[in-house]
Amino acid sequence: xxxxxxxxxxxxxxxxxxxxxxxxxxxxxxxxxxxxxxxxxxxxxxxxxxxxxxxxxxxxxxxxxxxxxxxxxxxxxxxxxxxxxxxxxxxxxxxxxxxxxxxxxxxxxxxxx
Length: 113
Known about the structure:
Helices cover about 25% and strands about 25% of the residues. It has helices at about 15-30, 60-65, 70-75; strands at about 1-10, 40-45, 50-60, 80-85.
């Protein structure tokens, strides 16, 4: 297995965390749900530092080397500020209450208030 972490510092971009959440709902989540070899992708944000990113877990280094849709970089206006790839030493799933992992997160939760 292979893991990739990509971070953008949004300081130079016209995009915001809120606008990128719309991008997730409108197109990215669906597109990545059909990506061959991708075991898990979760998008991450840090409003305090204005950073946006993703963590991808791939079945293999070869799967991770496949071309990816580059729409986020296109919207943000530049490639990730940081990108790191790692070999995965071990995986585990804990004792959890939520049966499905897909469809979770701030971008996919209806706003309240």
